[in-house]
Design brief:
This protein is α/β, with parallel strands linked by helices and 279 residues long. The chain has an eight-stranded mixed beta barrel, surrounded by four helices. The protein is globular. It starts with 15 loop residues before the first helix and ends with a helix. Bound molecules: ligand C2E and calcium ion (CA) (2 copies).
């Protein structure tokens, strides 16, 4: 028997009734969360490896229920995709993040790049380009400072469609990044055909690279390949000085991780821009 369903809900467990209803509860909560305004964003700094300067940030959604419980995006994003609620949620994320980062641009940090995650469903929507154009126009956000993070899975069903969509976004001046690189199925095959600006090395490689020579070799190879394709490289999940030193030695361009900062609410991010990282 299959132990786990697509989204780790145990559809075929003996305790099926309980599992099914808890999923339904979560789905209902999710619908209400949106109208109850229970979502907010955190921003995690992305730092230049050589200078230590904040170059930009990744927007990450947070859900805190009215009674206080926090639900992790790893738990509710898959359900949001399944129920297509990710479409309004994703649009809200894009709009809210552009509006916030535009404020930072206006208050003396005009260079900051904003990275936003796009779920595959969102990325493949027919009206994606119109939606993004509208958000950029409404918030006066410069396309060149917006980076969309996608995963290889966008190409699972129809690679041609995904690739032409990436080209269309690039034509708008938007930057494209591949997220969680190295964890999907045919990374190298797609890499030569995806018009990408940035490659994000997935956390597990970064976290094991200082203890496992094979992970170190893989990170080195990913950086080499990305640079050969004129892409810059960002390492995520960087938690230690040792990882940072090794990544710099291997020529990694940008760093994101708890070592510099956890994802922060907007007001704390503003504070960080003003005071810099605590030493
Ligand atoms: P992701 O896009 O790979 O985001 C990076 C995750 O790693 C974030 O988890 C972040 O908080 C965490 N992280 C950052 N630095 C470190 C570190 O040094 N160590 C460790 N252990 N973790 C670190 P988070 O915020 O819980 O998000 C989980 C996933 O949920 C994201 O993975 C992304 O796939 C999805 N997600 C989050 N926000 C959005 C969103 O607005 N839209 C969509 N479609 N997906 C989102
Ligand atoms: Ca991401
Ligand atoms: Ca990632």
């Amino acid at each position: 028997a299959k132990a786990k369903g697509k989204n780790n809900y145990q559809f075929f467990s003996t305790d099926m009734t309980f599992v099914t209803s808890s999923k339904l509860v979560l789905e209902n909560d999710l619908r209400r969360a949106f109208s109850n305004e229970e979502f907010f964003l955190h921003y995690q700094p992305q730092v230049c490896a050589s200078s230590g300067d904040v170059i930009g940030m990744e927007a990450l959604i947070r859900w805190q229920k009215a009674e206080g419980t926090i639900v992790s995006p790893a738990e509710f994003i898959p359900l949001a995709e399944e129920t297509r609620l990710i479409l309004p949620i994703g649009e809200w994320v894009l709009y809210t993040a552009c509006k916030q980062v535009k404020e930072w641009h206006n208050s003396g940090y005009p260079h900051l790049k904003l990275a936003v995650n796009l779920s595959p469903l969102q990325f493949l929507q027919d009206d994606l380009l119109e939606t993004i154009s509208l958000v950029l126009a409404t918030t006066h956000f410069p396309a060149a400072l917006l980076e969309l993070e996608i995963t290889e899975s966008v190409a699972l069903d129809d690679a041609e469609k995904a690739i032409s969509r990436m080209h269309a976004l690039r034509k708008m001046g938007i930057q494209m990044a591949i997220d969680d690189f190295g964890t999907g199925y045919s990374s190298l095959n797609y890499l030569k055909r995806f018009p990408l600006n940035n490659l994000k090395i997935a956390q597990p490689f970064v976290q094991d690279m200082t203890t496992n020579p094979y992970d170190k070799a893989l990170v080195e190879a990913m950086i080499f390949i990305a640079h050969s394709f004129d892409m810059s490289v960002i390492a995520e999940g960087v938690e230690t000085e040792e990882q940072l030193a090794l990544l710099k030695e291997l020529g990694c361009d940008e760093i994101q991780g708890y070592l510099f900062s956890r994802p922060l609410p907007a007001d704390r991010f503003t504070q960080l821009l003003v005071t810099g990282f605590p030493s």
